[in-house]
Amino acid sequence: MEIQLAAIHWVYLVFIVFIMALLVRRRDTTMICVVGIFSLGLLATATLSGSVSGIFNSFIYATKELIGTIMIISIIVAMSRILIVTGINETMVAPLTRFLRTPAMAFWGIGLIMMVTSFFFWPSPAVALVGAVLLPVAVRVGLPALGAAIAMNLFGHGIALSGDYIIQGAPKLTADAAGLSVSSVMEASIPLVIVMGVVTTVSAFWMMRRDQKNGSWRDGLVSAQVVSAALGDRKPGEDAPATLSPRLREVLAILIPLLFLADLAAMFALGLQGGDATALVGGTAVLILIAVTLLAHRNQGLEKITAYLIEGFVFGFKVFGPVIPIAAFFYLGDSAFTELFGNVLPEGSHGIVNDLGVALAGHVPLNGAVGAITMTGVGVITGLDGSGFSGISLAGSIAQLFATAIHSGAATLTALGQVAAIWVGGGTLIPWALIPAAAICGVSPFELARRNLKPVLLGLAATTVTAMFLV
């Protein structure tokens, strides 16, 4: 399993350090990402034209990978606008305010609902459903939009996805690679997921409340549109709620959540997940947009449908624009590099990021404590490509090697690598993986990543220490 690192690996690692440093300092990373793509392309092709073309092609690759998320966010925002204009949203969320009456209740309530929903349907479609309904309530009771995004993100893409106890996609991948049963990995992951989840969510909530009290809190809004919508504000000249009768508004306020609940039932009954589940939610949102717009605007309905869709797409691409360059760079750490620049990596390579993980594992002494620390490091490194899942098979393989050397802890080490990889790459630290929650809440994914950084690092440290005692 020994991989010889080449200059490409070291250059990629150097740029990762630069990019992370800029993110921590709240500086824009577009230029450094473009320079990184250019440098990798120059090393791979040894031609100026190949490296320059690689910049554009990597942007295209990243856009293709992200287009599904761009579409669902744009459509949900478009639907939200017509619900706000007609007053349906206010009617729909009014009953929830009695349960989420304080910022703390909103934070934990949104988080727990997001976690339960994500266990069954994975976080991406869950974000659209939970955010569209509960964000307005959270903002009304004083929880910042960024706080709602943190809650959805940590509970959904963190706790639920890293355990994945219902769909079992993650433990299946790691267990197969480690030569273990899925049930053994899931059982071993329970204390790790609990420790990671408790430490990250409690510390994130405490830091949010602390910064709000001392005046250092920043909402990181990228657009006032979603938060304005959540508060029920309307622009001058927009149609008033009177365009629908109070009775019809009440009927639609009941019918629309029922349609999304029907989506949840269909996902469960038909076994839909991931992109299929997201597509069902998106299609339902489009039909709701069309129906409500025709009822509200009548003769102008056909034109208004297009207007709302345009508004949604403008918002979606405005949010995603700054993310595409950094996504393009990090995708080069996986299969995108070979697809764009050819097979120039060393023989036996599994991609730049995975090679770095293997190299780390191959240069450490083997005992329980060091094995746990190394597995966390491997998980973090393989998660840097932003998918969360691409490197967990590698984590399982390395865990099996470590466990053989120390004669114990195979399931615990495998689960630790899985938890670390998914928390980092599955959607809590890598900016473009954070986009679903960030876009629904109208906040910057970079600010959300910065806010998540300390809680996730604290969680990883606590989880690694826990694993040391369990190995």
Automatic annotation (TrEMBL):
Q: Any stretches that span the bilayer, and where are they?
A: 6-24, 31-60, 66-88, 100-120, 126-143, 188-208, 251-271, 277-296, 308-332, 420-441
Q: Does the keyword Signal apply?
A: no
Q: Which controlled-vocabulary keywords does the entry list?
A: Membrane, Transmembrane, Transmembrane helix
From what superkingdom does this record's organism come? Bacteria
Asked if the keyword Nucleotide-binding belongs to this entry, the reply reads no
The name this protein goes by in its record: Transporter
* Origin species: Paenibacillus donghaensis
